[in-house]
Amino acid sequence: xxxxxxxxxxxxxxxxxxxSARVGxxxxxxxxxxxWSGWRxxxxxxxxxxxxxxxxxxxxxxxxxxxxxxxxxxSVFFQSVGRGTGRMAQLAPxxxxxxxxxxxxxxxxxxxxxxLLLAGGVGIAPFVGYAEQHPHPEKLELVxxxxxxxxxxxxxxxxxxxxxxxxxxxxxxxxxxxxTLQHKVREYRDGLILCCGPTPFMRTVQTAALKVGARxxxxxxxxxxxxxxxxxxxxxxxxxxxxxxxxxxxxVFWAQDVTL
Amino acid sequence: xxxxxxxAGLKLKNPILTASxxxxxxxxxxxxxxxxxxxxxxxxxLSLKPREGNPMPRIAETPCGMLNAIGIQNPGVEAFVDxxxxxxxxxxxxxxxxxxxxxxxxxxxxxxxxxxxxxxAALEVNVSCPNVSQGGALFGADPGQIARVTEAVKNKxxxxxxxxxxxxxxxxxxxxxxxxxxxxxxxLSLINTLTGMAVDARTRRPRLANVVGGLSGPAIxxxxxxxxxxxxxxxxxxxxxxxxxxxxxxVLEFLLVGAHAVQVGTANFLRPDFAFRLVDELEEMVQxxxxxxxxxxxxxxxxxx
Lengths: 260, 305
Ligand SMILES: Cc1cc2nc3c(=O)[nH]c(=O)nc-3n(C[C@H](O)[C@H](O)[C@H](O)COP(=O)(O)OP(=O)(O)OC[C@H]3O[C@@H](n4cnc5c(N)ncnc54)[C@H](O)[C@@H]3O)c2cc1C
Ligand SMILES: Cc1cc2nc3c(=O)[nH]c(=O)nc-3n(C[C@H](O)[C@H](O)[C@H](O)COP(=O)(O)O)c2cc1C
Ligand code: FES
Hints:
The complex is a heterodimer of chains A (260) and B (305). Chain A is 20% helix and 32% strand. Chain A is of the alpha+beta class. In chain A, helix 4 runs parallel beside helix 5 (199-212). The longest helix of chain A is centred in the last third of the chain and has 14 residues, at 174-187. Chain A is globular. The two termini of chain A are 28 Å apart. Chain B has 305 residues and is of the alpha/beta class. Chain B has one domain: Alpha-Beta Barrel (TIM Barrel). In chain B, strands 3-4-7-8-9-10-15-16 form an 8-stranded parallel beta barrel, surrounded by 6 helices. Chains A and B meet through loops of A and strand 5 and strand 6 of B. Bound molecules: flavin-adenine dinucleotide, flavin mononucleotide and FE2/S2 (inorganic) cluster.
């Protein structure tokens, strides 16, 4: 078990992405490593800027994108979508954030198995660290579906970690994306499939994987309050229809073990 | 000054407990601090049979607070006693069980099972959960029912102290407090959540699948203080204050109006080591204010000139 810690740490960097698209929507937030003994791709961290007053209660969950030994930093990649992330977009180096993690389970990693990564939008975030940690990144293939221009996302960070074949799909052509997903899932029937993205995207992958009997994992993004399994606010239904905590039993589930 | 308090015969290291439903079974937080430092832990609400709880979404953040409609999801009392309680730190701190049922007889049955457990320090009876239409709210608003349920639990509780947890969603909390006292309660705890609701003007959807839920957090503190004040005036048994506590000064405010101890709930979501830090902060504040004893400070609110 990797030890979880809660610490107040300093923001080291805020890197805006894709300024050409929508100013102030996509960021990499890099903060001082809170003394984690380790982490695994797929795990997440709860972040609550220390200057938030009580008008915002909860921390916000984010996939851990990478941990740099050299810099002694942890990175998350986030999109500003609401009250909390909107205020997080104003963070600057030197600001304090309270973070607890690493939390939750992680993606399966099988060094010799051809592995298909399916990312929708900011769902690419955990795969940056996944590619970086994978012993044989040439076994990885990414299909990346995104609404906004590619430079809005840490796509280059991912590409830098692997020489794998990359396939990319942009915006509005939903039927084509669905078609690609189904086709790719079939192709990786004997491999490993990992998926992170919006719920409809993951549902498509889940359905396709179950149909052809592929081994697939999906990573859920439910609303969370505690992040540690205590409040039961984040539950999803497992394979037997029982409510289980997404934050501790997930966020990664095998396709057959969760109802999306 | 010694921070220890005595709540109806139950000795606590300090007056800070964690509130039911916000702290799981305690063990979820053991990575973030020493559970033994807490005055006590009130476990997640338990029912006779396992409950799946309400559909998602179950929580929504609101200004200075949150709404929840968890629906008392729990593994049932049997699984609790067999699997969960043994792993809880009951040797190091007071573990209070929180009971949820739909009638007086079921409450009695639950109490009987839990009273046999060495690891349980007290029983807290939830007559005020507003989430489940069948259960809580009904009892919580009816003084007669409160008295009957309290009696039923008390009859089966053996030597365990019985705390009755009251709802603020009533016309007169003093009447409910007296009903619990007459039913034989050893102490009262209040408040549970206030019924509330949040909707999304754009999507035209309620923010909770259950539509209505319970409001908690700093937003409810003034209501909680008022209720605790009224309950303290109405009864002679100890009162445990709950509602919106988020710093040591809040703790003192509840003690000032007459509470013997407090529970912290939603503030545990500010950060998972919140309760541990609160104990330290209270210790410092007690020192800097040069308080001499809880007996002297408790209920010393000066009203009028
Ligand atoms: C395990 C996990 C990992 C995550 N990883 C990332 C990540 O790497 N990068 C990233 O940008 N986001 C990630 N998210 C989602 C992120 O936590 C939410 O976008 C954020 O909490 C929204 O907060 P807010 O206050 O800005 O939004 P709010 O004001 O609360 O809500 C704004 C809008 O976002 C929706 N929303 C609220 N919470 C969530 C949520 N948890 N997921 C999806 N939609 C939500 C609301 O319904 C609303 O439409 C992750 C979530 C989880 C559970
Ligand atoms: C997520 C959540 C779950 C709760 N579950 C229970 C419960 O099972 N039983 C109970 O008596 N109270 C429950 N409560 C109420 C709290 O114990 C407490 O009375 C209330 O939240 C007010 O305190 P606070 O403002 O410090 O949170 C719950 C509250 C929250 C936020
Ligand atoms: S966020 Fe509290 S149980 Fe998962």
